[in-house]
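User: Earlier you gave me the apo prediction for this protein. Now I'd like the version with fe (ii) ion bound, so I can compare the two side by side. Same sequence as before, with the ligand SMILES added.
Assistant: Got it. Here's the input I'm using:
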Amino acid sequence: MKPYKLPALPFAYNALEPTIDEMTMKVHHDEHHRGYVDKLNDALEPYPDLQKRVEELLASLHTLPVDLKDDVANNAGGHANHSLYWTILTPRSQRGPSGELGSAIASKFGSFEKFQSQFTECAAQHFSNGWAWLASDAHGALSVFATKDHESPISRALTPLLVLDVWEHAYYLKHQNRRAEYIKGFWKIVNWKEVGKRWEDVRTKGATNREWKMTG
Ligand SMILES: [Fe+2]
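And here is the structure of the complex with fe (ii) ion:
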């Protein structure tokens, strides 16, 4: 049995329209994400001892054999990042973060709107393929940054809370080169309840290298 599996989407393919159209979602989930899962299974097939949870793999990339490291970084990262991305999207978005997460964001960035513009600029300015993140360290310090390719914050000992895929495959069919339009739409489909749960875990448990229910 293959250790890594493609998780089902938590919504219908067309549920996030008009921000993310049905065709993009099908290709993104069924082809791109599946590709990372398949390649991760292939890469680790000869190494049963290394078939750990993707979070553990990403937290310990430096311990992997040199000829395996890039393959695992790309495909475990691709698998983990997409699995997380699906969970923080929803057709029933709330207006913004509430409770403890809302307070933490306002305290760190000045206001939700200021956080939103910083995240938007980070996602819009990121050169080439990658991801924009809101992440926390083990002590609850929040930060916004982008990573290249499929690098995960987990490899930096940070816990991802919110993520936006800015690879062209995430938006090009619908928005072509208008990444700003895709980012604007993203704010209407964020699952703040899920992001809030992730923050609650960090706040109460603090750990970063643990299961985040994003591996499917
Ligand atoms: Fe993607």
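For your comparison, keep in mind: The chain has one domain: 21-216.
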